[in-house]
Design goal:
This protein is 0% helix and 38% strand. 33% of the residues are buried.
Length: 163
């Protein structure tokens, strides 16, 4: 799957030293806990909850409009403990998705309007189709396509693709 180019108005974004582009219309809490690796695009309406736990975002990740990134949590001794959210390189997060995963691997495409449950693991080189719900603690294996409510196996992806 190839994404179309993302164009932006430079006056509406803040560009960091390592090439991250962060919309002035996004809501970022706990900026000290948000670690974008470089060339990350955070579009308008995105909510990043770095005040809960650290969020690591890999290189060349595109976070589309109105996505919510919220670290997952566990209950320990009656209290909530938030855990780090790791997002790999070359990841695309579709519009209006809610992400509470434990880990998202490299080269992952998550479609529009998806919900990724608490502590879910999305392995590398996989696709989650639009309008899908990955249940809490669900695992999407590498080189697979998952879709539906709840998300189930749809297809297998080849280990390499023809040019």
């Amino acid at each position: 799957m190839e994404c179309s180019p993302t164009f932006y108005n430079p006056s509406l974004y803040i560009e960091t030293n390592n090439g991250n582009r962060i919309s002035k219309q996004s809501s970022i809490r706990g900026m000290q806990n948000i670690v974008p690796a470089g060339k990350v695009i955070i579009q308008p309406g995105v909510i990043l909850r770095g005040d809960l736990a650290r969020i690591k975002i890999g290189q060349y990740t595109n976070i589309e409009e109105e996505v919510i990134l919220r670290p997952s949590y566990t209950k320990q001794k009656g209290k909530l403990k938030y855990t780090e959210l790791n997002i790999g390189d070359y990841v695309h997060l579709g519009k209006r998705s809610i992400i509470s995963a434990g880990k998202i691997g490299n080269c992952v495409d998550i479609g529009e309007d998806c919900i990724i449950g608490q502590r879910a693991i999305i392995r590398g080189n996989s696709v989650v189709l639009p309008n899908s719900i990955v249940p809490p603690e669900g695992v999407v294996p590498p080189f697979t396509v998952y879709g539906g409510r709840p998300a189930t196996f749809v297809a297998e992806l080849p280990e390499s693709v023809q040019e």
